Each structure stands twice: as structure tokens, then as C-alpha cells.
User: Fold this.
Amino acid sequence: MIERWAWWSVRRVATWGCGGELSSRTEYTATAFSKPLTMIFRAIYRPTRQVETLAQVSSYFTQEVRYRSEIEPTFERYVYGPLLRGVLRVANGMKVLQAGSLHAYLAYVLVLGVLLLVWLGGTK
Assistant:
């Protein structure tokens, strides 16, 4: 008896690469995928790029090329950094409230409860 899905079999063939052989040198890198976003947000990220040609045999053929690309950490420097410093400053100031005394913690809860009752009791 012929199985119903017999035509569904796995076969292994070489990956099509536009007539060329695929290797690790022909793969896309993370830079290739992120370049469009870097171009769109150029004013925010301020990308810098440095291309250096070493060991040049002739003006058309080089033996080695070094490429360096870098973006400025704008959000880390101007948003996350100040926010983190502010939160840490507030947390450092809150250390005074943590005396390690159970009586002090119960007093905090009692004061907070009274303040909530006064605040919520005034609205109808």
C-alpha cells in the first residue's frame, strides 16, 4: 500500500546563493541590518566611521582593511544616566527611614493609613 503523504520527504541540497558559493564571508553582519536605522536616526546616534587600508599592494588591491563604526550613547548619557543618578540619590536619602526598628515600621504604616483615610475621606 502506498502511503498517502509519501511525496513529503526531506531532501538536502545546497543553498542557492545567486550562483556563488555561500560561506561565512558572504553572510550579512549586524552592521548590515542596523545601517538603515542608523541612517534614519543619524541626528540622535551621531555615527562615526573609520576605514583604514593596510598593506596596500596597488591602488586597486589591498591585503587588509580595518573598519570601525561607533555610535554615541545618547540615551544612556542624557536620559538613563541622569534618571539613574536621581533614583539612587532618592534611595540613598530613604535609608534614613530604614532604622531596623519594628516599632518605627509600624508607626510608618499607621501614619500612612491615617493620611490615606483623611485624603480619601474628603472626596465623595
